[in-house]
Design a protein that fits this description.
Keywords: DNA-binding, Transcription, Transcription regulation. One of its GO terms (molecular function) is transcription cis-regulatory region binding. This is LysR family transcriptional regulator. InterPro entries: LysR-like_Sec_metab, LysR_HTH_N, LysR_subst-bd, WH-like_DNA-bd_sf, WH_DNA-bd_sf. Strands 3, 4, 5, 6, 9, 10 and 11 form a seven-stranded mixed sheet that branches. This protein is of the alpha/beta class and 300 residues long. The radius of gyration is 23 Å and the shape is elongated. Strand 3, helix 5 and strand 4 form a beta-alpha-beta unit. Helix content is 45%, strand content 24%. It has three domains: 72 residues, Orthogonal Bundle (Arc Repressor Mutant, subunit A), CATH 1.10.10.10; 104 residues, Periplasmic binding protein-like II (D-Maltodextrin-Binding Protein, domain 2, 3-Layer(aba) Sandwich); 104 residues, Periplasmic binding protein-like II (D-Maltodextrin-Binding Protein, domain 2, 3-Layer(aba) Sandwich).
Length: 300
């Protein structure tokens, strides 16, 4: 089989479409169509079915995709191994992360990494926990970072690198911010602003409320942490957020932390990698930068 045809097939299957595959491979969509057709003719099997703008793998396509994933993963591992022999002058670092570590923890470290190794291309993929898991399993990411217990899979190795704390926050001029002590019952009368269902932060809150046998009033829900912070600062409600997320706003005096022991949730931020993947030189260099403890500066 033609290796170039397999590369085109693998990229189309990964993106479930020709447009993104063409952008990644830097070739035209008609060229991709021709090469897929040639591969199907060579194999005597249909690999894709087209429904609307998306293409889906047939049973034969799914089988071939499993093999091409292994093939290109081994080729990349070979390239990385050979590149290691030349040092860190060139290379690529593929990092995945859930929202909190991806936006509020990793950028500063990645900035330091780029200064140390300017020849290494850094790719940060911020996705939800389920997508991170799938990309690790398909070897589309080398390492990833997630909060809580969102990913548990026998093929994924998890290591705690630091701890995070979810706390209740209100606007700095909120009535409760002026009190020396606030009770759980007082908090439960306030309107809550939540992340979308499936968010690890929301799951943590729902689990804690279930343990306490309590309920809250949900005023709004957003998929954006920035939107939640803006809404809380505007006194539209209160929220449970990570200390990493609110660090700057607490420093600037826009948000205030309420110390509610029952709703203060400590969780782990974990480094994840596929057990079959040997860390490349770029990954090893990045992990060395994580030795310094990750701690929010002001939100204490």
């Amino acid at each position: 089989m033609n290796l170039n045809y397999l590369k085109v097939f693998h990229t189309v299957a990964k993106h479930q479409g020709f447009t993104k595959a063409a952008e990644e491979l830097l070739i035209s969509q008609p060229t991709i169509s021709v090469q897929i057709k040639n591969l199907e003719q060579e194999l005597g099997l249909e690999l894709f079915q087209k429904l609307g703008r998306k293409v889906y793998l047939t049973e034969a396509g799914q089988t071939l995709y499993r093999y091409t994933t292994k093939i290109f993963n081994q080729l990349e591992e070979a390239e990385n191994t050979l590149r290691d022999l030349k040092g860190l002058g060139k290379g690529r670092l593929l990092v995945g992360a859930s929202t909190t570590p991806g936006i509020y923890v990793l950028p500063e470290i990645l900035g330091q990494y780029r200064k140390l190794y300017p020849g290494i291309e850094v790719v940060l993929d911020i996705s939800n926990s389920h997508e991170i898991e799938q990309k690790l399993l398909h070897h589309e990411l080398e390492i990833a970072f997630c909060g809580g217990e969102g990913i548990v899979h026998p093929q994924i190795e998890a290591k705690t690198i630091t701890h995070d704390e979810l706390v209740i926050v209100v606007a700095e001029d909120h009535l409760l911010a002026r009190k020396s002590a606030v009770t759980l019952d007082q908090i439960l009368t306030e309107p809550f602003i939540l992340r979308e269902p499936g968010s690890s932060t929301r799951i943590a809150l729902e689990q804690r409320l279930q343990q306490l046998g309590k309920k809250i009033k949900v005023a709004m829900q957003f998929s954006s942490l920035e939107a939640i912070k803006q809404a809380v600062a505007a006194n539209l409600g209160i929220a449970l957020l990570s200390r990493f997320v609110i660090d700057q706003e607490v420093c600037a005096g826009r948000l205030h932390i309420l110390k509610i022991p029952e709703l203060t949730i400590r969780r782990e931020i974990k480094l994840l990698r596929h057990k079959d993947n040997k860390p490349s030189a770029p990954v090893q260099a990045f992990l060395r930068l994580l030795q310094e403890r990750l701690t929010p500066k002001c939100s204490t």
